[in-house]
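[agent] plan:
  1. take the single chain provided in the ticket
  2. run structure prediction with default settings
  3. attach structure tokens to the ticket
  4. add a short note for the reviewer (M.T.)
[agent] executing step 1
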Amino acid sequence: MRRAVIYLFYDKSGQVDDYVTYNLEKLREHAELIFVVSNSVLTETSKQKLSKVADTVWERENNGFDVYAYKESLEKIGWERLDSFDEVILMNYTFFGPIHPYADMFNRMDAIDTDFWGISAHKAVRPHPFTVALEMPLHIQSHWIAVRHKLLASTDFRQYWATMPPINSYTDSVVHHESRFTKHFADLGWRYEVAWPAENYPAVHPIFDNAALMLADGCPILKRRLFFHDPLYLDKQAIIGADIMREVRRAGYPEELIWQNVSHNAKPRVLSTNFNLTQVLDDNAEESVLAANAKLRIAGVAHVFYADMTAEIMKRFSYLGDHAQIFLTTSTPEKKTQIEQQLQTMGRQAEVRIVESNRGRDVSAFLVTCADVLEPGRFDVVAKIHSKKSAQDAYNAAELFKRHLFENLLPSPGYTANLLHLFATEPYLGMVFPPAVSLGYPTLGHAWFANKKPALALCERLGIKLPFDDTTPLSPYGSMFFARPEALLPLTKAHFTFNDFPEEGQYSDGSLAHVIERIFSYSSLSEGLICKSVMNREWAGIYYGFMEYRVQALLSQLPGFPLEAVTALQNRRPYGLLPELKLTLQRRSPHLAKTLRPFYLLARQVYHKVRSR
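[agent] step 2 finished; step 3 output follows
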């Protein structure tokens, strides 16, 4: 079968990640023509990458969304040329694939006599979520619509595109194309098929809500949106990212292609939540783990401002193994002498360095005094800790914070070996740190404090481009973590000096050290390397108990699932009478609210039109 592919791409930075070229390479085995249309200006490197796997790479202005990209691509190729193909596939960049080989699907679908087909379909929804219509019909989803020659050459098909109304929003795209295409042509008598029929799956939106089931059935694509969609939706629908990735690994798809892309396209905390990137590590390590770790070049770096904590620091670092190199920094020659005397008494080896200034404390000591240790190629993994006392905090909170960090990073030899094994076996992993401390500190929901605006400015300066977490950045609070040097490149390339950091009396939220503390993880993600949070069993039990109690205490005052609860809280803000009426009706009579939804949508449209005059 002579097949052409029109592949829509968009990225606001013009960056084409490897999942795109991998997909197109695999499609080349089944397509004579690959036409890439980009709704964004591409970088020169990206254009070159695409040119190697596509026959045409066309950049156009981002107007009309995906619909007009397809419309104008069909016109640019020309109906006469298109008439020579048995099948033309309109597809886009919103999925990873092929998770399973395309050949199996093409062989099956080529044997079916039909006029158009798709990989997946969305079931009918009542009422229509975007208009006042009673129903959004079942429809093939627009990430993959294959059109056979008979329909392609028909007046019906060309008239569909010639009369396409302007597309000015995502809603327009769904209403005038995605949810319309299937019913429009079916009503005209054209036949269609779905490779993985929606009726075979329990959810209304199987490609999203039943992704693991569809992958297990051999579906070759995985939607990218799963990685950056609202975690509260995944919570309500019980969608487990780890189950999805298990199917991806079972199929043999290169996992690193996924992480390379989503690491800089998803909000860090959203990605971590949706794909279960928090792990509880065991205290016992198998021999195979120790053998794999033996190949790692490991450095331990600690700023020892409090010399009396030297023994504790060195005990923690002993869990890294005998082959680890240890670097200690401190603030005065006197402290250096004290530390070296303690090292001699313990019979331990470490290089002790004196910082030029204590401005920036452990952060500057790490990035400035130990810059040579962080050069890529010297070590595979660097463990960063420091002599933490938090004297400004209440005793219980300060002690808990210290324990939270030390005991979830370096509690025992076996646990530490299992942590290091993550780096030995996951080349796409850039950084590991404990979850946000939330006992004794008001971090959850507030942890940017005064640091978000300066963090945005610093990231722009460093070339770190990824969506920011809304309220609580996924970060190594306390600035203790394990990392690959490559994950720190945006920070080490900045060549900070001690003068960049505030003097001791100005060490507060909004200052450089506090800002960097929150973007260590962003540095890693911007390099295409994911972050994981780790805990030991004891701390997982402690945190889960308090977390469950806090959540149930909050939700007891609010309706339904967390998704509805958050919506209720947001709607309590002074947004106007209409949202308040909607909220009250949903809470008191959900069935009536569903019945009246079309009228609410109509009222909202009228309201916005009147308001915009």
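[agent] step 4 note for reviewer: The first strand starts at residue 3 and ends at 9.
[agent] ticket updated
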